[in-house]
Amino acid sequence: MPIRNFSIIAHIDHGKSTLADRLLQATSAVSDRDRREQFLDDMDLERERGITIKASAVTVHHTYNGEDYQLNFIDTPGHVDFAYEVSRALTACEGALLVVDATQGVEAQTVANAYLAVDNNLELIPVVNKIDLPAADPDRVAMEIEQVLGLPAEDCIYCSAKTGKGIDELLDSICRILPAPRTSEIEQTRALIFDSHYDEYRGVIVYFRIFDGSLKLGDKIRMMGTGRTFTITELGRYTPYPTKVKEIGEAEVGFMVAAIKTLDDVRVGDTITLEHDPAAEPLPGYEEPKQMVYCDFYPATAAGDGKKGDYEDLREAMEKLHLNDASFTYDTTHSDALGFGFRCGFLGLLHMEIVQERIEREGGVEIVQTAPTVSYQVEKTDGELVEIHNPADLPDASVIKEIREPIVRLEIICPNANIGDLIKLCDARRGTFKEQKFLSDTRQILDYELPLGEIIYDFYDKLKSITRGYGTMDYEIIGYQPDRLAKVSILVNGVPVEALSLIAHKDNAEKRSRAILVKLKKQIDRHQFEIPLQAAIGGKIIARESIKAVRKNVTAKCYGGDITRKRKLLEKQKEGKKRMKTVGSVNIPQEAFMSILDQGE
Question: What is the CA 188 to chain-centroid distance, rounded?
């Protein structure tokens, strides 16, 4: 039986999941009775937000020219934070459907995903989707695809995933155009793991694509990367319901259960081979996903109330989530203000939001989250290079030679009318202009290099509001560059509060720290003594705000009479306040930390 392995890739909201639904329906894999929207997105969060977070692999059958074809396809996420999911899915395929919205045209993520597919030597079929919409202009979009990606406009397949128009033609094209999988290069078995997730009852479920040989039920297998051995207890494929099989052959995609206890025993990108007849060389795997954004999670009710439970619940929820999403990392940390918590690493801001929401839902824990920071590289005077994920860990200024920050290549696709405003925005964020490309009569592509730290807060929101929702962006990390960066410490009553410290560029450190102090001033209650709030770089104070003391009117009982009597009472009060200032401690409420995390400018 001929086999075709392909992925569905596209920008967010261009109709990947709907197209996957329609392919399932057209190949009679799902009956009309069981049909529902976003069939493959089985996580609540995916269905609510209307986005795909995890890639899903499905096997269906289609008859073309009287021959039965087995089609294995993977529906992938479209958001930039989940690009690593896309890259893993592409390695298991020989071709890809590049879906483009007939009303929106080519967007930033379309270009990024197309390049990913070309880098993996995949055959691309351009699909212009949503042709049933009144605003659709498929011919213009087909020309855009030719102009930007170099795929001939006449090769584009016009279809509507919603109404089903053009789907049969698309299925025929998949069988006709996409290359057949390569034949086995060696006699031994080699299968590539492209995904895995944890099931409470069966252990780790591993998704794999076989490149050489085959796997049977009961085979003793070895993971070539970790060297661990297991026995296969269940083999199957999704059609899209889990269907058990006795054997999965060459070039096929499937899943297996082998009593694997933890996700650490399985590395995505590892090669599976047979224990008694192992392959000599593993298949080329993937780069490990690199965490770029870091923040702290603390249980919302501090352990100080005699409760240890919330911290333990949070740890449990994080361990469970880490089993399903190995691209998120966590480490224990402690802060004077918020107690015990975890320092977590994410691939990007959406990834951070999703992880936080999943922990709160699936673990039933409420979380306090600190402001996101990026990772920095610090070169010390003795030549040692350290990576810093938390401003509090920055070494003493005397031993720092330079601080390097992550730089991203940013590609913005926007209407011509907004070019000027976007250039202003990028320049204000310390961007370096690279090039400007023509996309169509109405839109252009801007290429910039920017520090990641400048885009993780509100850059995307600003881009959307400037372009009235029509602008899209995509970014990739290209490396680290040194700049005039410094650690800004926030002092409350002369005492540094580490949870509030940040790393900022010297040119805008004063503006950023002043904004923090103004917010702090609103949140901290007035005490019996004056509280100075200061921001300092090293020993130099760069901004200050004061919270005035609460005063009792001690002279109220003196009516008329000698002024010296009033002065004596005021001096006595002043002395008391002075003594109180030296022994009194400032109580910083949790809301103060929360208000600072809201990075509105």
Answer: 37
